[in-house]
Write a structure and sequence with these properties.
With about 270 residues, this protein is of the alpha/beta class. The protein is about 35% helix and about 20% strand. The chain is built from 9 helices and 10 strands. The strands form 2 sheets. It has a 7-stranded mixed beta sheet, sandwiched between helices. A 3-stranded mixed beta sheet has the order 4-6-5.
């Protein structure tokens, strides 16, 4: 494991990579959408020139080759390889356009660039595929994070189970709505101290700087139960069909949000 290396799997426009770079980490940013890669290359020209950042315009998949990617121009962060997620996006009014992109496996990515200290994964419905790609490697990142399952509780349990099999024994649940209110601690606990304002959609702090409580696997599953109740009531495919009723439920604390699960191992 390389202590100064971060993988940003799901680079998007570099909202997270900007923070990692400012803190002094080397970053490998992986993004399937060629338009977003072009934006990131322009945004971080100096860091790419210095070698601190490498942008990889490929999708994480189970094998190499060309794969179908669902490009979403309405909500750029919703680009996905997962046809079920593309169908969900369609139901939510964000149509996708199909294209083909190059794919790379997680093992090949680690083989080329080394094992990172922290791996952020946010690839719209394929996060589990990415962490399963670590299964046959001898080492794993000390810290990783994924955007957690929200469609079914069985899927959430599987995510925690796979991470536990990979050696992760502590977990931290982060409501994405809270990230814009995070502030890097001073003195720093990861990299160097920087002032930074997190953009909406960012993954925020990581590792030992992460706020909140670290939980066991069982505690994490229990903590997600009320979250999934809110998903069922007011999420993407809600049990409560009345828009007015959903608004009222959100006002009394039953609003559905996106959550990230961070994991660490000893």
């Amino acid at each position: 494991m390389e202590s100064d290396l971060v993988f940003d799997i799901g680079l998007h426009r570099g909202e997270d990579s900007e923070f990692y770079l400012k803190k002094g980490f080397r970053v490998i940013g992986v993004e399937a959408n060629p338009e977003l890669c072009a934006e990131a290359i322009e945004r971080f020209a100096a860091e790419i020139q210095s070698g601190q950042l490498k942008v990889i315009n490929k999708a994480i998949a189970q094998k190499h080759g060309r794969v179908k990617f669902y490009l979403n121009s309405k909500v750029s962060v919703w680009g996905t390889l997962n046809p079920e997620w593309a169908a969900r996006n369609h139901r939510l009014g964000a149509e996708s356009t199909e294209c083909e992109v190059e794919a790379i496996t997680m093992a090949a990515l680690v083989g080329e660039f080394g094992m990172p200290y922290y791996m952020k994964i946010d690839i719209e419905g394929n996060d589990l595929l990415a962490i399963e790609g670590l299964m046959h490697l001898r080492d794993r990142p000390k810290y990783l994070s994924i955007e957690s399952e929200k469609e079914g509780f069985r899927g959430l349990r599987r995510e925690i189970s796979i991470m536990s099999l990979l050696g992760y024994d502590q977990f931290n649940i982060v409501d994405q709505r809270s990230i814009v209110r995070q502030h890097p601690p001073n003195p720093p606990k990861e990299g160097r101290y920087v002032k930074h304002r997190f953009e909406i959609g960012s993954s925020g702090l990581f590792g030992e700087e992460l706020p909140g409580v670290w939980l066991t696997a069982d505690e994490t599953i229990d903590a997600y139960r009320p979250i999934f109740l809110r998903y069922a009531l007011t999420g993407d495919d809600p049990f409560v069909r009345s828009r007015l009723a959903r608004i009222l439920l959100r006002r009394i604390g039953f609003g559905a949000s996106w959550y990230d699960t961070h994991a660490r191992k000893k």
